[in-house]
TrEMBL record:
Belongs to the DNA polymerase type-B family. This is DNA polymerase. Its EC number is 2.7.7.7. The keyword Nucleotidyltransferase applies. Coiled coil: none annotated. InterPro entries: DNA-dir_DNA_pol_B, DNA-dir_DNA_pol_B_CS, DNA-dir_DNA_pol_B_exonuc, DNA-dir_DNA_pol_B_multi_dom, DNA/RNA_pol_sf, DNA_pol_B_thumb, DNA_pol_palm_dom_sf, DNA_pol_type-B. It catalyses: DNA(n) + a 2'-deoxyribonucleoside 5'-triphosphate = DNA(n+1) + diphosphate. It comes from Methermicoccus shengliensis.
Length: 892
């Protein structure tokens, strides 16, 4: 018997002799993979009832075959302030599946008024009770090593360096990762006759793999499903597809990766592999052709889809789809591997026309091109995920929330919040509800929660605007006003207890009586984030440790800001909409009070001393100096924009504006309950407000001794992906001219030049301009499910009619609008097809629907529509005049 430690990657269970046996998979400090068996942990749930003894007897009488034993316990109900626990039954079953069977039956027993925690997954039930979390370190007291003491049928298929049985298991504090192994892969399928490959027809002809660390001296390998002489280093050739796929499985198992990665691998590679092997099994009558890539070779890779979000499970390993990771972290117009590599890695994907792939495959002389093409794809995935550290934040969230890494990658924030809540409720002996189903969810969705306060903007261009931001507004409101499931009061309770009444009328017990569970969770998260950021500021922090700390503080921020949304989420176990409404009611009140304080109580400030040096700002007019009036020009949820207007009309330095901003923030913060705080976020030398949630700022932020400037845009065409890239570029350039230089005429000249370029575009020769005209939309459901025709669906259908299946549900589909008659939606076309066939574009569509509308919204604020038309028409004296046109493009 001895001790060992490993980092927890995955947990599952297998039934054995009518009881569950848990299997914990991970990698140890010594770099060896581990499978740890845990026996004896029993599934259970809670029952609330009016008659304990009668209910116990009825349960045992009717369901004794499922129930192992029943205990009497006392627990608090899920919602409401309580000082006395309720008597409940803790029902233990033989198998986790027994809990699900009983859950429905128990609702028919009249004495039962509540069934709690009946749908917590068994592996999470164990993790919660044992205090373990995903990606955390586990310390194990071993009973036996090498599988001794484990029945042979449980060991069958296990592929790990070490197999142990634990007599005791506990969490071990350690923040660094084990020496994890990463594998990236990509498959190439034969496009027979130029058609999109189908698993029951088109073979898999290549599999490329990249390794970190290297595998037997190779950083990458390419497997080829046909003979080839002098294939080259790192290339393995086979007689046929079946041999190649067997070797692929063998290499994965032998390398024993902790993380398997691809690019759109969940949407294409894994499903295609599974379907292709299923076809080959049926065709060849060989049931051994299985995709057994996990640490249990008796279980094949499993695949399922939720809407357009596919999920892949490989026992004992983590599956990460690079496409999904990039989509979450980066806002790009196109998410092809080619575009992503160019934008994020500043490198190029090797290109091989889809139409040539079949002929290249059959040509020995050109086959190395396809091999290099395939190898580069796997290498790019490795560079994307590891080079950009795309997994760091998700691994940190797993540790902090107690969630398995695979669930963090595949599921939303709800599972993370619930894990934190259930852990805290467990510590306070409070049960939780099961998740809602069916009609309950529909009923919740019908309820509309009132949102945050958004002040009407003072439209136009403003100078010297302070951007004041409430630090973590909703989490700090929860903490400040003790808003929690465990503090919510009934009207009768409120009459007897010291309490807080929120603006929407909800009542919560005062923190002096009882500090809420959720406020305490958030306080801990906030303190941890501040502590982590202080650690990052240390000048001696090694780069690897700094990266781990940065991922941790970002993960803490995600968790901190997730709780408000959970309160009103229709799928939440703990759904209390009046609590979500209480939070937003304070948010609305907060914005209005801030405006009142700034404009009525402060109203103006004086800065003494030379405006070019560091000065003090006070509210005492007797101090002399320059006088400044304050006016709130916009407010949105957690931000307030305050214009500083000098009485003498002169310029105002950034240093003076900074001091004024900090003084205003301090005055407002002093009137707020802890830990709420208003801070100076940035200084906008110029700010352009167009409408609610639509604005652009030229901001300055202090970085050490200096100020750094940038353009910040919200809600405009520069950041919205339903506009083409040219729109974003033109609007960004116009904003720079207007905000930085105040040059409206220069902005008009820029637009004039772009319009002329569009009118003369050649899709073949003007390659960069053509690329900027490509639009994209996400393909979210089957074409038949769309109520109205959509341009990207038109493209999908056109490609399908040509025998091509280029896009799957979940992809962003690129398209351009071509010239011709008929509806715009019918003239949408695949960009590659347009280039190949020299099809002209509808330049009037791009000018009048893409470029001019957002530009007009900006420039009209300065000169009005009529005057703007005149300015545009006078930019150049040689104009194309066409009496038939009435659009602005005719003046350009």
């Amino acid at each position: 018997m001895g001790q060992m430690r490993f980092q927890l990657l995955d947990i599952d269970y297998v039934p054995f002799h009518n009881e569950p046996v848990l299997r914990l998979f991970g990698r140890g400090e010594d770099g060896k993979s581990v499978c740890c068996f845990v026996f004896g942990f029993e599934p259970y749930f809670y029952v609330g009832c009016s008659d304990i003894e009668r209910t116990r007897s009825e349960l045992l009488e009717r369901f004794g075959g499922y129930i192992r034993r029943i205990e009497d316990v006392e627990r608090y109900e899920p919602v409401g302030y309580q000082t006395k626990k309720q008597k409940m039954l803790k029902v233990y079953t033989h198998l986790p599946s027994d809990v699900a069977k009983l859950r429905e039956e128990l609702t028919t027993i009249p004495s039962i008024h509540g069934i709690y925690e009946s749908d917590i997954l068994f592996r999470y039930r164990f993790m919660l009770d044992a205090g373990l979390g995903g990606m955390e370190w586990v310390e194990v007291v071993e009973v036996e090593e090498g599988g001794e003491g484990v029945p042979d049928e449980l060991l069958e298929g296990i592929q790990c360096d070490r197999v142990v049985v634990a007599s005791a298991i506990r969490r071990y504090e350690q923040h660094m990762d084990a020496p994890l192994r990463y594998l990236a892969f990509d498959i190439e399928c034969l496009p027979i006759g130029g058609k999109m490959p189908q698993p029951n027809e088109a073979p898999i002809i290549m599999v490329s793999l990249a390794f970190e660390p290297a595998h037997e001296g190779y950083d990458s390998l390419v497997l080829v499903a046909r003979p080839l002489e002098n294939a080259g280093n790192g290339v393995l050739v086979f007689d046929n597809e079946e041999q190649m796929l067997r070797e692929f499985v063998s290499i994965v198992v032998d390398y024993d990766p902790d993380v398997i990665m691809g690019y759109n691998s969940n949407g294409f590679d894994f499903p295609y592999l599974l379907d292709r092997l299923r076809h080959l099994r049926k065709k060849k009558g060989n049931e051994q052709l299985l995709l057994t890539l996990g640490r249990d070779r008796s279980k094949e890779v499993s695949y399922r889809r939720f809407g357009y979000m596919p999920s892949v499970n490989v026992v004992g390993r983590i599956v990460a789809d690079g496409l999904s990771l990039v989509r979450r972290d980066f806002s790009l117009k196109q998410y092809t591997l080619s575009n992503v590599a160019h934008e994020l890695l500043d490198t190029e994907k090797l290109e091989l026309p889809f139409s040539e792939m079949e002929s290249v495959w059959q040509d020995d002389a050109r086959l190395p091109e396809l091999i290099a093409y395939s190898r580069r794809d796997a290498e790019l995935v490795m560079r994307l995920v590891l080079g950009l550290h795309l997994l760091d934040r998700y691994f940190a969230i797993a540790r902090l929330s107690g969630t398995l890494a695979q669930d963090v990658l595949d599921r939303g924030q709800t599972v993370m919040v619930e894990n934190l809540l259930i852990r805290a409720f467990l510590e306070h002996e409070r049960v939780v509800y099961p998740k809602p189903r069916g009609g309950d969810v529909d009923e919740r969705l019908e309820k509309e929660l009132q949102g945050a306060e958004v002040l009407d903007p003072v439209k136009g261009l403003h100078e010297n605007v302070l951007v004041l931001d409430y630090r973590s507004l909703y989490p700090t409101i929860i903490m400040a006003y003790n808003i929690c499931y465990s503090t919510l009061l009934t009207e009768q309770q409120a009459e007897q207890l010291e309490h807080i009444t929120t603006p929407n009328g909800a009542k919560f017990v005062s923190p002096s009586v009882f500090r809420g569970i959720v406020p305490k969770i958030l306080e801990h998260i906030l303190e941890e984030r501040m502590r982590t950021r202080r650690q990052m500021e240390g000048t001696q922090t090694p780069p690897e440790q700094y990266r781990a700390l940065d991922a941790r503080q970002k993960a803490l921020k995600v968790l901190l800001n997730s709780f408000y949304g959970y309160y009103g989420h229709a799928m939440a176990r703990l759904y209390v909409p009046e609590m979500a409404a209480a939070i937003t009611s304070y948010g609305r009140e907060n914005i209005l009070n801030t405006r009142r304080i700034v404009e009525e109580e402060i109203a103006r400030v004086w800065a003494d001393g030379d405006v070019d040096v560091d000065v003090d700002v006070s509210l005492d007019e007797a101090s002399g100096g320059r006088k400044f009036e304050l006016k709130v020009v916009y407010g949105d949820t957690d931000s307030v924009f305050v214009k500083v207007i000098p009485e003498d009309g002169g310029d105002v330095s950034l240093e003076v504006l900074e001091r004024i901003g900090r003084t205003i923030a301090n005055i407002v913060s002093e009137r707020l309950p802890d830990p709420m705080e208003l801070r100076l976020d940035a200084i906008a030398k110029r700010a352009l407000f167009i409408a609610k949630k639509r604005y652009a700022l030229w901001v300055f932020r202090r970085r050490g001794e200096e100020f750094e400037d940038s353009i910040v845009v919200r809600g405009m065409e520069t950041v919205r992906r339903d506009w083409c890239e040219l729109t974003s570029k033109v609007v960004n350039h116009v904003l720079e001219l207007v905000l930085k230089e105040g040059d409206v005429r220069g902005a008009v000249q820029l637009v004039r030049k772009v319009v002329q370029q569009l009118k003369n575009i050649d899709p073949v020769h003007d390659e960069h301009l053509f690329e900027d005209l490509i639009l994209t939309r996400r393909y979210t459901k089957h074409p038949d499910k769309y109520q109205n025709r959509q341009p990207h669906i038109t493209v999908v259908e056109k490609l399908r009619s040509r025998g091509l299946e280029k896009y799957s549900i979940g992809d962003r589909v690129p398209f351009v609008i071509t010239a011709g008659s008929g509806l715009m939606v019918d003239r949408a076309e695949d960009p590659e097809y347009v280039r190949e066939h020299h099809i002209p574009l509808d330049t009037e569509y791009y000018i009048n629907k893409q470029i001019l509308p957002p530009v007009m919204r900006i420039l009209e604020l300065f000169v009005g529509k009529g005057a703007l038309t005149g300015m545009l028409s006078s930019v150049q004296h040689e104009m194309r005049s066409d009496a038939r046109q009435s659009t602005l493009s005719d003046f350009m």
